[in-house]
Amino acid sequence: MLFRSAGNISFAPTAAGFAVREDGTPVVAVKVIRVGGVEGSVGATLRLTPGTATYPSDYGAELIPVLFSDHGPTELTLTIPIIDDHLIEGNETVNLQLTNPTGGAGLTGQVSQVLTIVDNDFPPIPAPTVNRLTTNDSTPQITGTAPDRKSTRLNSSHTVISYAVFCLKKK
Questions:
Q1: C or N terminus of the chain, fewer CB within 10 Å?
Q2: For 17, which DSSP code?
Q3: Cα 95–chain centre separation
Q4: What is the pLDDT of residues 21-59, one digit of tens each?
Q5: If you average pLDDT over residues 110-129, what whole number do you get?
């Protein structure tokens, strides 16, 4: 008698968990594997639950089907719908859980994982403030406050304070 096995489903091994940028670009892709057999079509459900991220403002699905075809690939890369919310909130997390195996497959190994959504929104950088423009010995000098609140002094060969551009001409 020939033994046929549907196999088992789990997350692919990863030491650091999974990560995706807020624009949806994977940093460490979410991968699910089928081990111990390839007979028949099998599947599971990927359940997403809030960590520090919330549905539907940070991610766009709570349940994602995971389907392996008969004698097909044994590793799948899943796309998690991420919402780029344009809020400055830091990195957030979503809990991932494989559940409800179908087609005779089981769940084994790593069936829970954390997905980190890497924030891509940053606070605006304030422009420096020019307090004084003086000329000594025909060399213009600018004194002002840069965004880090330190005093900044430039001579005419410098034209940039952080992200603001100053242009001076000698007469």
A1: N
A2: -
A3: 14
A4: 999 888 899 999 999 999 999 999 999 999 999 999 999
A5: 86
Per-residue tokens: 67 = 């389907």
- On whether the CB atoms of residues 56 and 83 are closer than 8 A, the answer is yes
Structure-token pair, residue 60 = 């766009």
Tell how far CA 7 is from the center of its chain.
Answer: 31
C-alpha separations of 128 from 98, 122, 123, 135 in Å: 51, 18, 15, 20
User: Is residue 101 within 8 Å of residue 43, measured between CB atoms?
Assistant: yes
* Cα 69 from Cα 164, distance rounded (Å): 57
Distance separating alpha carbons of residues 160 and 31, to the nearest angstrom = 46
Closest CA to 78 of 12, 16, 149, 134: 12
Query: Exposure of 169 by Cβ count < 10 A (0-12 exposed, 13-18 middle, 19+ buried)?
Result: exposed
| CA pair distance 60, 138, nearest whole angstrom | 62
